[in-house]
Amino acid sequence: MRAELIENRLVVWDIEDSRRLFSSGFFGKPIGIPKPRQSDFDVPVILDLFEGYYLNGKSEIQIFQDERKVSQERFERICDEAVFQFKEKLLVYTKLREAGFVVTPGVKFGADFAAYERGPGIDHAPYLVRVSIPSSKMTATDIVLAGRLATTVRKQFIIAVVDASRNEVSFVGFDWWRA
Questions:
Q1: Does the active-site annotation cover 127?
Q2: Is 108 among the catalytic positions?
Q3: Burial of 98 by CB count in 10 Å (0-12 exposed, 13-18 middle, 19+ buried)?
Q4: Catalytic one among 29, 116, 127, 137?
Q5: 116 a catalytic residue
Q6: What is the pTM of this model?
């Protein structure tokens, strides 16, 4: 499948390819359809950089820019420049996807990712994931703010601590109790 790199997004213009990608794991978002439930749409899908990198690495898509194929190495450089801690976030995205979750951007929730058990439009994402590295500092206030937000939208707040040198991710979940 062909995906066109436009700024920091990828567009799959072929409608059949778009439907196939979406139905194979909720990859991408159909343009102009905020909450699609099925692959019954007649518009292209837009992939974020994590989805694009993941799918390109699995040879599911080929990335083009200005009619030229973009190598995985060049695409990685583009992603590194566009996204803070891209490699760490990609590792978390990949671990979640390989564990069977549908992973979407979590920006509207103040997180890096939202993780669904079945998929958007089918269930609500039970998890909000924030990516961190061992050397970063997180205050108690940061944790309380994130936890309060997650609780407000009925999700569990998870910190994914990435050790990129070992290719490892540790997930720390927070449950909030009311007394």
A1: no
A2: no
A3: exposed
A4: 116
A5: yes
A6: 0.91
